[in-house]
Amino acid sequence: MPQRTITRAELSEAVYQRIGLSRTESAALVELVLKEISDRLAHGETVKLSSFGSFVVRDKGARVGRNPKTGIEVPIDPRRVMVFKPSNILKARINGQAADGFDD
Fold this sequence. Notes:
Number of helices: 3
Distance between the termini: 28 Å
Number of strands: 5
Shape: extended
Largest sheet: 3 strands, antiparallel
Helix content: 25-40%
Strand content: 25-35%
Strand order of the largest sheet: 1-2-5
């Protein structure tokens, strides 16, 4: 199955087609939603979208890594990472199963 990536423009077009806003308003709405999610994550908040999943920010501590080519140890600085946890409903949908009885 070939991989396909959906773009912001395609999301905007879907909003335009389904909701009936103008193309400009649809693009602005998509940008606003994505900006709000990004801003919340940047502040360390969890973003939960019911029946879809949660975006969680985690802190990873400093550790010692190893260069796989040379074997030399390299320090890895602490950092924050974002993790997506899909809901049971989304997991079931991806696997072609009925999502009845699942909570997110």
